[in-house]
Each structure stands twice: as structure tokens, then as C-alpha cells.
UniProtKB/TrEMBL annotation:
The keyword Cell division applies. Keywords: ATP-binding, Cell cycle, Cell division, Cell shape, Cell wall biogenesis/degradation, Cytoplasm, Ligase, Nucleotide-binding, Peptidoglycan synthesis. Its EC number is 6.3.2.9. Cell wall formation. Catalyzes the addition of glutamate to the nucleotide precursor UDP-N-acetylmuramoyl-L-alanine (UMA). One of its GO terms (cellular component) is cytoplasm. It catalyses: UDP-N-acetyl-alpha-D-muramoyl-L-alanine + D-glutamate + ATP = UDP-N-acetyl-alpha-D-muramoyl-L-alanyl-D-glutamate + ADP + phosphate + H(+). This is UDP-N-acetylmuramoylalanine--D-glutamate ligase. The lineage of its organism: Bacteria, Pseudomonadati, Bacteroidota, Flavobacteriia, Flavobacteriales. Pathway: Cell wall biogenesis; peptidoglycan biosynthesis.
Amino acid sequence: MKRIVILGAGESGVGTATLAKKQNFEVFVSDFGTIHDRYKSVLDEAEIQWEEKGHTEELVLNADVVVKSPGIPDHAPIVKRIIAKGIKVISEIEFAYHFNSELSIAITGSNGKTTTTMLTYKLLKEGGLDVGLAGNIGDSYAGQVANHPDKSYVLELSSFQLDGIEEFRPNIAVLTNLSPDHLDRYNYKYSNYIDSKFRITMNQTAEDYFIYDYDDKEIQQWLKNHSIKAKALPFSLYSKLDEGAYVEEENIIVTMDKETIVLPIEELGVEGLHNVKNAMAATTIAHLKKIRKEKIRESLSDFQGVEHRLEKVLKVDNVQYINDSKATNINATFFALESMKTPAVWIVGGVDKGNDYNELMALVREKVKSIVCLGVDNTKIRESYENVVDSFVEVQSMKEAVRVAKSLAESGDTVLLSPACASFDLFKNYEDRGHQFKEEVHNL
């Protein structure tokens, strides 16, 4: 019997433990922090050994294989010791893949991956396919494979999850776009992060598909310098393509295998150019999976988008409040600002991940009248924009941010929370930040 040690007892770790136990592994779960009571009871019920608040080395370093949570960096002391001992370290995605009889659809990218994943799942599910939804969303992939090993899954994957794969091979892989993100985990080298994202296609064969943003310069550059085996299907807002998806006269055109689908952009249930791209990627997948055109159109038109991603919260005194808390990098905020149709009061700030604020300068000049800066350290944002907008106010709480934004907004304006930064200085995570924003807007 093989011994598997799982580091981290969150959704991913506990799902892996459940699957490993079902596959007759000797399982041990070790968490450096405290384990949530809900997960403790799952582990106890399955008679899986666990520990919290630290790692007991003799119980960890005797593993045949270690599955680590994507949140644990490679430079963590325990991980360094595991690697030094020559023990294989993989991700939940890699482990579960070997027990999943159907090849999956895997979606990654700096932005848009959640929306594209949700939309793809909706198109396939409503089109009559028996598919699961996992990865960065909802219940863990491993936990679902434990109960439904013969399903095909739509997986949203982060670069951290892809770092831990060896043989994982999706039938359809999607790379929505690239922009600098999480560089603190990649020695501050953008090229390392890009290579990490492209791991999604490394095991694909000529029978598989790789769908990507043709307009993305970094993706194009990487593909020039590397070869992939999968059939490439690009999507573009600006170029007409022989095969793939593109925009022509306010329609999305998807063309492949001498078949064409035409979808009017105005029928999409979500707004913004970035959502046109997400829809192109999802529609390409649905077409590959033989979903009927009518069904695709119907599902696209009633898709309401994802919470915390350009989510319309409320109109107060004819001012629209929009929650885009999921925008944790410059690229995501770029699309948010680009989609603004009225003067914007922009709430921005948080933990800076190496942002270049000049990339937003033209949009800020064009769209933003006032900035409310919400973060512990706002120096970079202040230096970039203080002299570009009518008013620039720094605050330390969401309540204050929303109140100040209300005082700066006039009838017909938009208040946009699109932080371009991580949330960990003042909030638990971007969801907490988004929920607090919505709560304060409802309190106005």
C-alpha cells in the first residue's frame, strides 16, 4: 500500500484525502494552520489520520508521494525537506486525473478564467452533457472524482495548480490571456509565470485542442518559440480567422470543420469586450462538444456572469454601483474601466503585486473623475494618478470608501470597485472585500 501525505486540509486537500482513501492509499493529512471543523468531521468519518498547527516531520517525510495545496509555496521549509528527500510532490489535479476515466476541459489565464469556466459548464450542462465543475471553483476535483470517476469535468486551473502536474492531459485546454500576476511566486520573472500557464497544454496530443486569445502578444510570442501538439483554435476581437472564433459586424463567428455559428453580440447576457472573448472561448468548446446552435444561443443570452466580476449591485440616487472585487490585477481592471459608459468614481487599492499603473493611464484620463484609494499603502497609486483626476481620497475601510464615493458621485455616474490589487491588507480575500462593498452600498 502506498503512503500519501497531503499538505493543507482545505477543500482541495480533504477532497484528495477522500479519493486516496477510496483508492486504498495509506493517507495522512497535515496542516500548518488550524483545520476547519467541517473538514475535521469529513476526515474523521473516513477514518483518515490528520494533524494541525504544524507538520510532524517523521510522519510527513516517510511518504511515497506528497500532494500539496496550491497555496503552499515551494520555498516553504517542509516542502524543501520533502524535495531534498526525493519524494514526489504533485497537485490535487495531477493525483485525481489518474482516477478520472474521461478527459477534462481545463481553463486557465490571468483573467476571465472563472467566467469562461462557468459559461462553458452552463453551455455543456444545458446542452445535455453530464459534466462536473471543479478546480478553483466549488467542490474539489479529487472529491468529485471519488464519487463520479467517469464524468468529464470543466476545470478552472491556476498557475499554482498547473505547477504540480506531470501527466495531466485535458482534451480541451483554454488560455484566456496573460498579464503579470503572482510574480512573487515566480522569482519576479514574468517568463516563469507564462511557462507555468502553458503547462496546461504540455501533455496534449494531436487529438486534443488548445483554444487561446489570438490578440494576446505574450501568447503569440510564446507560441512562436515553442511547439504544441494540440490543434490550435484561436479567438480574436480584431482579426478574421480561417478557423476559430472572431467578431464581424457585431456578431461572434465560430468556424471550424467547414461549419459556422453566428451569434449576435447584443444577445449576450453579460456586457464588455472581455465577456465577448469569454463567450468566444466557451462557444468554441460547446461547438467541439457538438452542442446545438440554438441551445448555445439560449444559454449565452441568459448567463448572468460571476459574483464580484463587474456585478451591478444597486442604483442609488441614479448612481450605478458596480462590484468588480475579483479584479486583483491591472489587466482585469483595464477591462472594467474600458466598459464604463459614464463618468466613474473608481475605488482602487490593496496589496500591490508589482503593478505598472501607467498601463491604465489613458483609460483613467478618459473615464475616471475621482479616485477613492482603499489600502494600507497607497503610495504607488497616489504617485500615478493624484494629479490626473479631479479628486483623490485615501481611506482605510470599505464603509468609508463607499461613503466618500457617494459624496463624489453625481447623478448619472458610476461607482466602480475594481481594486487591481490583492485584498489581504484589509480583507480576508476578494470575496470578503466584494461582500463588504455590497453591504455598504445597501446601507446607503
